[in-house]
Amino acid sequence: MNILTDAEKLAELDSDQLHRLVGLVEHDDAADPFPVTGWDAVVWAVGNATQAAQLFQAVYGMELVAYSGPVTGNRDHHAYVLRSGAVRFELRGAVDPASPIADHHRAHGDGIVDIALEVPDVDRCVAHARAQGATVLVEPSDESDEHGTVRTAAIATYGETRHTLVDRSRYTGPYRPGYVVRSSTPVRPDGAPKRLFQALDHVVGNVELGRMDEWVDFYHRIMGFTNMAEFVGDDIATEYSALMSKVVASGNHRVKFPLNEPSQGRRKSQIDEYLEFYRGPGAQHLALATNDILRTVDVLRARGVEFLDTPAAYYEDPELRARIGEVRVPISELQSRGILVDRDEDGYLLQIFTKPVGDRPTVFFEFIERHGSLGFGKGNFKALFEAIEREQEKRGNV
Ligand SMILES: [Fe+2]
């Protein structure tokens, strides 16, 4: 039996639902040199955390649960902790101009600084990571308050991104010591869904040209991850740009990291564009799992979220129609919303991508509804890239 994380229990998810949503599988932690229970939080550094927190509540339907900032004695920055199902975001924005968050934002724009992971044994993970040559940014230590103790450490990954390792098994507070309970004030309109997404499926990293295999090796060696799928070269090449992508996953498949590097195209690829505007490697997109992507897209679009356009030709292509077969709704329902569909030997998935969430053409979201398929939409990469390239062209970055 898989142990559920506290966030999953709070979200009233069970193992079966998580299997359907994100492909959770059984895994024996005892034999794993670096056992990972699941996602802890995705930590963002943004230009205006106060407004971003409003956006993620009012538009994305997330719930504010905890806060740290000047009124709690943290004079450096605001930090808002939001949840939707088992997904947790922490949004940090500088108050003090000397804050490292201000430096990060100046260099990278709005971005993800930390993909924090829940682990059962911080010290064991750090010992293994160090022995394998990882950069340990923060040594294991305890933080305590009246709710108990959280043990954390942090290791470096691509670019300026880190993985904080969190053991919260002895903690009952809202997030971590130093944060206070804070609740959402927006009221959910009548008939609005309780939440628009339930779990985090995968986080994609864009890494330097020619270094994808090094980062794949990093996750194998340091964190005991295994390969899930591999997309190389022609599979995801368009006429002008291409990328190489490999996917690594934690033992229980909760944590999945596709890693992309640019590959030679005739023009600048979308990965090159990301690397240029993010000023280096970083997290490219977060895939949020939903059990009703049609409703999620309808609600988000009504609230002003913009998605990538999918050409009509995508839905009308007879080859694609034949490959897709039967899905739970008529293709016209997908076409009217621009939702993509892909199928493999295990089943199918529905997915859609937003436009970049910040001011730079860097980080964006994917929404994904899985029906057996444990893939990442390989068959859609080409259609997606062509759509992204049309946007890139409008921005003049080709
Ligand atoms: Fe994805």
SSE string: HHEHEEEHEHEEEEEHEEEHEHHHHEEEH
Given the C-alpha coordinates, what overall shape results?
A: globular
Task: List the total number of helices.
Answer: 12
- List cofactors, ions and other ligands: fe (ii) ion
CATH level-four homologous superfamily name of the largest domain: 2,3-Dihydroxybiphenyl 1,2-Dioxygenase, domain 1
Provide the helix percentage: 25-40%
| Structural class assignment | alpha+beta
Widest sheet: strand order? 6-7-8-5-1-4-3-2-9
Number of domains: 2
What characterizes the major β-sheet? 9 strands, mixed
Overall mean pLDDT: 91
End-to-end C-alpha gap: 49 Å
CATH architecture of the largest domain: Roll
Domain VOC: 38-168, 199-355
GO molecular function, one term: 4-hydroxyphenylpyruvate dioxygenase activity
Protein name: 4-hydroxyphenylpyruvate dioxygenase
Keywords: Dioxygenase, Iron, Metal-binding, Oxidoreductase, Repeat
In a few lines, what is going on in this structure?
It is an enzyme of class 1 (oxidoreductase). The protein is of the alpha+beta class. It contains twelve helices and 17 strands.
Key structural traits:
2,3-Dihydroxybiphenyl 1,2-Dioxygenase, domain 1; binds fe (ii) ion; alpha+beta; 398 residues; 2 domains; 12 helices
